[in-house]
Amino acid sequence: MIQEQKKTCSPLTSLSCFTLYLILPQTNIRMKNQSCDKIIPWEQLPPENLTTITEFLLLGFSNLHEKQLVLFPVFFCLYLVILSGNFIIVTVICLEHSLHIPMYFFLGVLSVTETCYTFVVLPKMLTNLFSVRRTISFTSCAVQMFFFLGFGVTNCLLLGVMGYDHYAAICHPLCYLILMNWRVCRLLAGTCGMSGFLISLLGTTLVFILPFCNSNKVEHYFCDISPVIHLACGDSYISEFIIFICGVLVLVFPLTFICISYGFIVSTILKIPSAEGKQKTFSTCASHLTVVVVHYGCASFVYLRPSRITSSKDQLVTVTYTIITPLLNPMVYSLRNKDVQIAIRKVISWGGSSLKTI
């Protein structure tokens, strides 16, 4: 029967049958490929299937609902304490000549960078706690990430430099003024700032050159690397790898350097004969170590892992190094450091006497 049909087929019909025979398998293969869970490179997608994202929606703390009204006064008060505390430290260091030494110079620079660091994130977060529309434009998100990473990386590098300063002051006191002269101090502070913003520029560029054509909902209260790069619809493995290497350079190397420095510092302190000298030196180092442990510990939890991996604890940990660490800096250094306490009393007494004369 089949043979009879083949014999009766006209040449045109035979050509049609042959064409269907060629097309159908390719169609089946294409349908199979579409059914597979393979990632199609975004460059191969047609333009009509790409949706350009012009703004992001920050969802941080939105799951807390009415509890956000409680968070606002808490975070607002902490922000005021951060601003006032760091302002007091910078003012006292500038006015009191006895604090014009490298250790307090770096402390003043750290206070300035941490004030800017919190200013990049906290005002927007406080606004969003009271706002229904929690959007941030694409450009503003990139700018926020750039400055946040810039000041954050600068802080990490400054803490490493402060560790070296303590090492030079305690282990090599006779050569301290040579090792840490004002030219070296300015050079180290400037290098920390330039390196911080260059690394930030690299990280921000690697994130925002990726295409964003999926969701625009950022599961965070500001534009951080991990929640933003999670929304990218292109292949981000190269960007993630470079960002991870930068994280290792910024976090692991300075922390290792600080640990080695404090190993020499502890061995030197144990050789000090007087108990009062040991206590004073330990008190100076303990304030720095407290900030180092909190800052590096929380930052390492967030950044020393692939950027695509997110955790429900990220927001809580980020609150620690965006609010608690800048809060610890003025409190720890003012409460544990007698020189700063004496200088604050002097500045207050000067202010009181000047008001009386007026």
From TrEMBL:
Gene transcribed to yield this protein: LOC110201828
A molecular function (GO) term: olfactory receptor activity
The UniProt record lists the keyword Membrane: yes
Keyword annotations of the record: Cell membrane, Membrane, Olfaction, Sensory transduction, Transducer, Transmembrane, Transmembrane helix
UniProt topology in membrane: Multi-pass membrane protein
Gene3D superfamilies tied to this protein: Rhodopsin 7-helix transmembrane proteins
Positions of transmembrane segments: 69-95, 101-123, 135-161, 167-185, 192-212, 241-270, 282-304, 316-335
Protein name as it appears in the record: LOW QUALITY PROTEIN: olfactory receptor 10R2-like
Species whose genome carries this gene: Phascolarctos cinereus
Subcellular location: Cell membrane
Alphabetized PROSITE patterns for the sequence: G_PROTEIN_RECEP_F1_2
Occurrences of domain G-protein coupled receptors family 1 profile (ranges): 85-333
Single GO cellular component term: plasma membrane
